[in-house]
Design brief:
Strand content: 35-45%
CATH superfamily: PK beta-barrel domain-like
Largest sheet: 7 strands, mixed, barrel
CATH topology: M1 Pyruvate Kinase, Domain 3
Structural class: mainly beta
CATH architecture: Beta Barrel
Shape: globular
Helix content: under 10%
Length: about 260
């Protein structure tokens, strides 16, 4: 059996916008540092997502010496780490979270591009959002991610899926935090306890997938795949699964090239 090696590390600072590939990242209780610590909310203070607004995929992020830049075609905006605005009660799925308006300038920029009133908000590290208690290990917390701190997917799983489709898809359709090479397709479904470097992780439950996976991250256009193909062999209990949700036990750095050791 070949070694399982971390091949890619991704963060998505603003929920449902483009991701940033990193060579290494700190693991914090809520997930990778800066991952889903910001989001856009609509006029009802509900989170915005590519599921409803697929054009959000066209916002691309980059990182340079600890600061972030958001680009939309020819326009760009710095992502301020410090929020200037008031506290807001916002809704993420079934959760109500306390967030902070980043700035009026950011609100106006996003609203103009998206053609609707929206606000950019931040979720401070100390603010609470518990993981579903059915899967919590130690009163775990999560960022603005859908439900869990981290997501891992094996390259072999994507390769197997692509071998079943007419046109292969890139990994960015699935928005993982950790991608690894080695091992068998879909073996991450069965992972429970494992280590990456000094960090222990626990696999909580396979990740159920939605229409966001059908959004082309380069064009913002929705299609049918990969859900049509996945439904033929990865569907159970009326849900389609791809990838494994994780909770971090330790909070050190992980890097591309690290070996994954199953326990």
């Amino acid at each position: 059996m070949s070694k399982r090696i971390v091949s890619e590390i991704w963060i998505y600072p603003v929920k449902s916008l483009g991701g940033i590939r990193l060579s290494s990242s700190k693991v914090l209780p809520k997930g990778l540092e800066h991952d889903r610590r910001w989001m856009l909310i609509d006029e009802e203070n509900k989170f915005m997502t590519q599921r409803v607004y697929p054009q959000m995929a066209l916002f691309k992020l980059s990182c340079d010496q600890g600061s972030f830049m958001i680009r939309y075609r020819e326009e760009s905006m710095n992502l301020s780490i410090v929020s200037e605005g008031n506290s807001i009660k916002a809704i993420v799925w079934d959760d109500t979270v306390e967030v902070y308006e980043v700035s009026k300038e950011h609100n106006n920029w996003f609203s103009k591009i998206l053609g609707m009133n929206c606000r950019l908000v931040s979720f401070p590290e100390n603010n609470t959002r518990p993981v579903d208690p059915r899967y919590s290990i130690n009163n775990d917390q999560v960022s603005l991610a859908d439900g869990y701190p981290l997501l891992v997917i094996g390259q072999a799983s994507l390769d197997d899926l692509n071998g079943r489709m007419k046109s292969p898809l890139p990994m960015n359709r699935f928005r993982p935090n950790i991608v690894f090479t080695g091992g068998e397709p879909y073996e991450e479904d069965r992972w429970r306890n494992f280590r990456i470097g000094l960090n222990r992780f626990t696999g909580i439950k396979p990740c159920s997938r939605c229409v966001l996976t059908t959004v082309n991250q380069d064009t913002g256009v929705k299609g049918m795949e990969p859900l049509v193909t996945l439904a033929t062999y990865r569907k159970r209990d009326n849900k389609i699964y791809f990838g494994q949700n994780l909770i971090p036990i330790d909070h050190h750095k992980i890097s591309e090239g690290d070996e994954i050791v199953l326990e």
